[in-house]
Amino acid sequence: MQIWVDADACPNMIKEIIIRAANRTNTKTTFVSNQGFSLPASPLISRLIVPGGFDVADNKIIECMQKGDLVITADIPLASAVIDKEGTALNPRGELYTKSNVKQRLSIRDFSEGLRSSGVRTGGPDKISKKNIQAFANSLDRFLVQQK
């Protein structure tokens, strides 16, 4: 099992939690982004930089991931593709996506996108909170313990 991180929009505090968990559990982890950022030296942690463009990082993650891998993303279409490929998707706020809830989230996302394209202001997600960060750390730990 490997961890893949949709890293461009992943908050730094979440990246730090992922790195600590990967090193603690000896889990290979790859951060995929179209921008460079610093990562600690570790044989378990790697970076895959892709060209900029719409869904380039998402498509690379789907191309590289295997059944049973964990993908950390807030991107609902990516989470849906991960589940379709029999992986697990975890939101940086600590919510595990499932076959049932990801379809519902896609519907809501598509509806909101339709509203925005017609000029309605829908707002974005709230800023990530300490409670969200703790929920993520707990969810990640539970998942990794189940894998060992």
In short:
With 148 residues, the protein is of the alpha/beta class. The chain has helices spanning 12-25, 56-64, 76-84, 99-117, 130-147, and strands spanning 3-6, 29-33, 45-49, 70-72, 88-90, 96-97.
How would you portray this structure in words?
The chain is α/β, with parallel strands linked by helices and 148 residues long. Helices cover 47% and strands 15% of the residues. A 6-stranded mixed sheet has the order 3-2-1-4-5-6, sandwiched between helices. α1 (12-25) links the parallel β1 and β2. The protein is globular and about 50 Å long. The N and C termini lie close together (10 Å). The mean pLDDT is 90.
* Number of strand elements: 6
Give the helix level as a range of percent: 40-55%
**H and E string:** EHEEHEHEEHH
Largest sheet: 6 strands, mixed
State the secondary-structure class: alpha/beta
The rounded Rg comes to: 15 Å
Give the uncertain stretches in residue-range form. Answer: none
Whole-Å distance between the termini?
A: 10 Å
Number of helices: 5
What integer is the average pLDDT? Answer: 90
Q: What is the approximate shape?
A: globular
Q: Order of strands across the widest beta sheet? A: 3-2-1-4-5-6
Strand content: 5-15%
